[in-house]
Write a structure and sequence with these properties.
The chain is α+β, with helices and mostly antiparallel strands. It has a single domain, classed as q2cbj1_9rhob like domain (Jelly Rolls, Sandwich). It is built from five helices and twelve strands. A seven-stranded antiparallel beta sheet has the order 1-9-5-12-4-2-3. Strands 8-7-10 form a three-stranded antiparallel beta sheet, with no helix packed on it. Strands 6-11 form a two-stranded antiparallel sheet. The longest helix has 18 residues, at about 115-130.
Length: about 250
């Protein structure tokens, strides 16, 4: 199947694109410019996807997903990591894995002190405030390092299917993909028939989503050789509170 090239936006079109379509795509060159990260800083950050623990919560019995997870707060123009906490979603947003506390291993301290890590989280919180219409908003950020591999012959980036995450905004950075086919991203209007398909294949390209307006999914991956993988950094930003069983 032919891969569909994303329709990338200019930096100046981020807000207009999100307001019009519910999402925006940036290529790596614009991500570098927008976040003020260097190529070297992003490459250094990419190496931290080579040591991710297996996700033990997959209900389909698979062993194709590895991940780390940590949480942060953006407030008073600063990003601060919070004590390690469980990742929780309601079944309304994740019918497969919702309703349970999932305790993943935290993002390593050697990762969170890297310049690119802070720059990315800071920039995402700033644009979320601009899109939200209030730059003083407190943002609760969950950061997920994902590796989907083809150990089982097939890997599923979104085993829960097309979904929303129950937050305000979602950012998906394509960190790397190697020796795979598939992994097509699909974004749909949550309240209508409109949608778009494309394949993120450029390292450090970005998909930014308004999670209140669109649903998204990525199709399974298959190996082109003996094995392959797809690495992503997923950030979710929710106003004022993290998702948890009591809030």
């Amino acid at each position: 199947m032919q891969e569909l090239t994303p329709r990338y936006s200019e930096i100046s079109d981020i807000k207009p694109s999100v307001h019009k379509r519910g999402f925006c795509l940036l290529d790596a060159a614009r991500v570098i410019q927008w976040t003020d990260c260097s190529k070297e800083e992003l490459h250094d950050l990419s190496t931290d996807w080579n040591d991710l623990p297996i996700d033990k919560y997959l209900k389909d019995g698979g062993h194709y997903r590895s991940r780390r997870h940590s949480s942060f707060i953006f407030e008073n123009n600063s990003v601060t990591q919070v004590p390690h906490r469980a990742h929780w979603q309601s079944v309304d947003y994740n019918a497969l894995h919702g309703g349970i506390e999932r305790w993943f291993e935290p993002v390593l301290a050697t990762t969170t002190i890297k310049p690119a890590w802070y720059k990315i989280l800071y920039k995402m919180a700033c644009i979320a405030g601009e899109l939200h219409g209030d730059i003083s908003t407190k943002w609760c950020i969950e950061a997920h390092q994902f590796r989907i591999d083809t150990t089982d012959g097939i890997g599923r980036p979104t085993p829960e299917g097309a979904h929303r995450d129950g937050v305000n905004f979602v950012a998906v950075f394509m960190v790397d993909r190697k020796d795979i086919k598939g992994g097509e991203t699909r974004v749909f209007d949550a309240n209508g028939p409109c949608g778009e398909r494309f394949t993120l294949n450029e390292p450090w390209s970005l998909l930014l989503l308004d999670d209140t307006r669109v649903i998204h999914e990525s199709t399974p991956i298959q190996p082109l050789k003996t094995s392959g993988y797809r690495d992503t950094l997923v950030l979710t930003l929710r106003e004022n509170y993290f998702q948890n069983p009591t809030v």
